[in-house]
Design goal:
alpha/beta; Dihydrodipicolinate Reductase, domain 2; 34% helix; globular
Amino acid sequence: MDDDVPLVNPEVNFDHLSLIDEQRRKRKWDGAIVTNPNCTTAVLTLSLKPIAASFGLKSVVMSSMQAASGAGYPGVASLDIIDNIIPFICEEEEKVQRETRKILGQVERSADFRVSASCHRVPVIDGHTEAVFVETEKPAAPEDVAKSMAEFKAEPQKLMLPTAPEQPVVVRSEQDRPQPRFDRSEGKGMSVVVGRIRTDPVFDGIKYAAIGHNMVRGAAGCAVLIAESMKSQGYI
Amino acid sequence: MDDDVPLVNPEVNFDHLSLIDEQRRKRKWDGAIVTNPNCTTAVLTLSLKPIAASFGLKSVVMSSMQAASGAGYPGVASLDIIDNIIPFICEEEEKVQRETRKILGQVERSADFRVSASCHRVPVIDGHTEAVFVETEKPAAPEDVAKSMAEFKAEPQKLMLPTAPEQPVVVRSEQDRPQPRFDRSEGKGMSVVVGRIRTDPVFDGIKYAAIGHNMVRGAAGCAVLIAESMKSQGYI
Amino acid sequence: MDDDVPLVNPEVNFDHLSLIDEQRRKRKWDGAIVTNPNCTTAVLTLSLKPIAASFGLKSVVMSSMQAASGAGYPGVASLDIIDNIIPFICEEEEKVQRETRKILGQVERSADFRVSASCHRVPVIDGHTEAVFVETEKPAAPEDVAKSMAEFKAEPQKLMLPTAPEQPVVVRSEQDRPQPRFDRSEGKGMSVVVGRIRTDPVFDGIKYAAIGHNMVRGAAGCAVLIAESMKSQGYI
Amino acid sequence: MDDDVPLVNPEVNFDHLSLIDEQRRKRKWDGAIVTNPNCTTAVLTLSLKPIAASFGLKSVVMSSMQAASGAGYPGVASLDIIDNIIPFICEEEEKVQRETRKILGQVERSADFRVSASCHRVPVIDGHTEAVFVETEKPAAPEDVAKSMAEFKAEPQKLMLPTAPEQPVVVRSEQDRPQPRFDRSEGKGMSVVVGRIRTDPVFDGIKYAAIGHNMVRGAAGCAVLIAESMKSQGYI
């Protein structure tokens, strides 16, 4: 979380890679340290980016239902999770709250919207599900939010980076989607699938469900896309 | 949801039973219609009552992880829920939003705090888990909220009604509790178990996890406790 | 189960298709009725075929652990199968016992080895797992059985039918395989995966674990392969 | 497995405790080593005992579906067992095969019937399910086997030992029982529940399903009952 170490989710804050220049100057090295977001943050920030761009963010409340694979191997004991929910993942909420504001912020400083996360482990193999409640700066009708998400493209798509999914945010219109077992492999695991975009009565904003593959968008796939992004900019 | 039909969660709004008098007058009958809250609402409102009483409620955001038994039998197909989450339960969010304000309101009218719910079905047999984010009217320190919950008693306890749990809200201090498999039978399924009470950075309020047995507190047990409450007041 | 209606698992009893000729003569029609084996039988008979061919069969005891998708949709209720086993599937054992002898028998009559099945439903989405105990006619060393299975090819492979898997029986040497989640899609779901081939102390025969995809080898995929087989023989 | 160390499942081979006398003589000590059967063996041998007593045993084939708690804590990783079966438990089959013959044998030597086990881990929290196929010495009609099981009592029942279940083997007549989630706590976890007793076409014997609580009958409860048995005989 150092100021000169970019934390990058390529479709969200590609421009933060420019911190590498400063990092090299300051640290007097040729290499570069770039970090991957936490898996829950990766899914959340990608779904929030089109909203941030079109409507602005004031507050984000997020309740996650995280897959067992997010805990690594052997990770969660089956005795702890069959027929059960664990409403705690060590340091996860703090990371999500901090990283979301950093990734969706400026190169030089975190955004100042507020974020509150509640993180839960569920008996699902792969795919983090997130219930997201958003207070926007400008009025945001669900259909406009859906449109902004469905049409969203960023540098990785424009540069046609090999690991970039054609559609970073896929919007489903069925009332009972997205579901992790059926949607986690969308875009080879690099897309985030969003559904149930509806008006939120607390924030006069919107709420929605998002799912992303924690092992791909949330881990290895994201790391590869970062490397491809760095290469496209001549950093490696 | 008729104005003269009480919707009762006995520890929360025992006084709403007085609507029976009006109902009898208006409808010219001797019987009485009293309704049970929705199972998710029953758990939520019981956990909110001590907060409402001590700190006041301005906004409530709730994300549920609901057990399969809540859908009745045969209910959720195993093919739909093994290794999966379904982020939709028909009419559930509307019910929770409406009923919570009615139960925590005055006899004659619903409370005017705002409620937003997002409801999800998870691969758990019994016990609804709820992530709750609360904006309070007065500042609410987590330890004070915990105290107000742990000490909370209401008419069913004072009247020592047979089905009333000794402690309606049980507060756990472990960082990874409550969990449905281990906590759903607390108070023979009539208690709500709360944990992880912590400061909420969005609302400057608090957030916590709550679990209750959807088949007991959320259904049959609550109905019996309503009957016992009615009997204690001479309505039956 | 009529005598002139072939019950066909193409790699096992391709020659039974010749019953169509008799069926057409007897029933005076141009069409043909050919039936698909039960999903559990499809997996079992494919794994038994190389043993039958090389060592002969005297007795087969099979205990299945069958996936929820075998019951169709909505099929098994989640309340019945989460954290549970159901040791009964209607008519299944009778079908497996009868069909296995028919498929591994001659065109004109069932084989006379004995078969006993015990069928159980388990909390698995796709893929039937079978524990098989076999009394062979000739001595059968585990390594020889493994070799006969791994090298097994039949008409569908020789004819290079589109749906025929390159290797109908895949033998795994790891001590904890096959496992349904990891092995059910072998050969696009058309292969049966076998492991743990070892000496059986009751029969002085062998025992092993087999897994096959009940929705592919055990249903739609098998039906397509039957159609391709019929076409290759000019029946359609 | 030493010859002078009794391996005791109290209802099955209470008389093996007399080995303690020999053990003390030989080893010149006052204490005593008595061992608990493996959890799978404990369930199997208790269900077999009435059959052994009334009909004699020639062969036993057993395929287990074992709960995750049998592996201790943390034991089986959730990533390994959700939507999956593991057809291997280290050393388990060898133990079941050896211990079953020892427990159902004479004090001085193991029985000489044959046993073959195939052991599988399934996504169940508690309760081992076993599919058992038995060749008996005398003809055994299912209804007679059921009667012998339902009426079975042994020394722990006659001595009214505190941990002894009133009925060691409970026979269910429903066609889809026993099931681990519903039957594992029978007799406070000390009873074995048996169902689906039917004729076996391979052995001209019988087959059935049995369930027992691996953590009670298969572990702690059995150990306590052994201690109570020893005390009743003056060994401690």
